[in-house]
Design a protein that fits this description.
By secondary structure, this protein is an alpha+beta fold. It is built from seven helices and twelve strands.
Length: about 290
């Protein structure tokens, strides 16, 4: 239910407290009404209104009500009284009003995948030159984060989208412009390198709920969330549950470089600060100015 407003009022003349959550709709006001106390006013003593006793809380769900204005804004006490007179039917006791369910988690919209437009790889083309940018971002290393493997040449690797383009398409990119889709396809935040068999077979278009890498698992999950937040993509419930499970065991979401003959230490690069995963009160991060839908 979309919440248009909330009310809590008291009046000694009637000895009751009214709380309401409601919305406007084509048929008028609809929502929930709670009343507690004893109604003594004649306006509330109606044959069709079942009496309610002191210190009992009644919660009533209501639809369109004749005589009440259909508008957004606070309900007047007079209107709350009318709601009580017309709608209070002696419902069972309750501990309080139901709160609207949140569809956000740390700035991400939680929703099922939906293909709102046909998917075509041609909409997500990117230049081959982006591979050199990926390597430069990893300090010149030709490295596959999913397996901790170093490669001798870029020819041994595939360019890998961390959030697969088909997954992104079904998570909101299907509603974006052609320019946005191309910008997403070459966004370095969502690009890395992988062995061809990993990119094309093991991971392919799978999401976090369907596949996790053997190495850099915390970085991978954290990065998928950053990409979704940046591009205002949705995340489905199964993927969110798996992401939470993984991150619960992660001291960091930094990219780890495996030790090798030429790299004798674990290096931290492309760090995603831990506080980047803190709750965002005002919803998803905004798109960059040059990629706004």
């Amino acid at each position: 239910m979309a919440v248009a407003g909330r009310l809590r009022l008291s009046a000694s003349a009637s000895d009751f407290t009214t709380s309401a959550i409601w919305r406007d709709g084509p048929g008028g006001l609809a929502g929930w009404l709670a009343m507690q106390g004893t109604a003594r006013r004649a306006a509330l003593r109606r044959p069709w209104v079942r009496p309610f006793g002191m210190d009992r809380l009644h919660v009533v769900r209501f639809g369109a009500v004749a005589g009440l204005p259909t508008r957004r804004g606070p309900l007047l006490f007079r209107e709350a009284g009318l709601l009580a007179a017309f709608l209070l039917m002696g419902c069972g006791a309750s501990t309080g009003l139901p709160e609207p369910k949140s569809n956000l988690w740390r700035g991400l919209a939680v929703a099922p995948e939906a293909r709102c437009a046909p998917y075509s790889q041609d909409d997500y083309r990117y230049p081959a030159s982006v591979e050199a940018e990926i390597i430069a971002a990893m300090g010149g290393r030709i490295y596959g984060p999913y397996t901790g493997r170093y490669f001798g040449s870029p020819a041994e690797t595939d360019i890998e989208h961390i959030v697969a383009v088909s997954e992104a398409h079904d998570s909101g990119m299907c509603a974006r412009s052609a320019e946005d889709r191309r910008a997403f396809a070459r966004d370095l935040l969502n690009l890395t390198l992988a062995a061809p068999d990993v990119n094309r077979h093991d991971k392919a278009a799978k999401d976090v709920a369907e596949w996790l890498p053997p190495y850099n698992r915390c970085w991978y999950v954290g990065r998928t969330l950053e990409v979704r937040r940046k591009w205002r993509l949705t995340i489905d419930r199964r993927e969110l549950d798996e992401a939470i499970r993984v991150l619960d065991d992660c001291p960091s979401t930094a990219l780890l470089f495996a030790a090798s003959a030429s790299h004798h230490e674990f290096a931290l690069l492309l760090q995603i600060p831990r506080n980047a995963l803190a709750p965002h009160e005002n919803g998803p991060s905004s798109l960059p100015a040059d990629t706004a839908a």
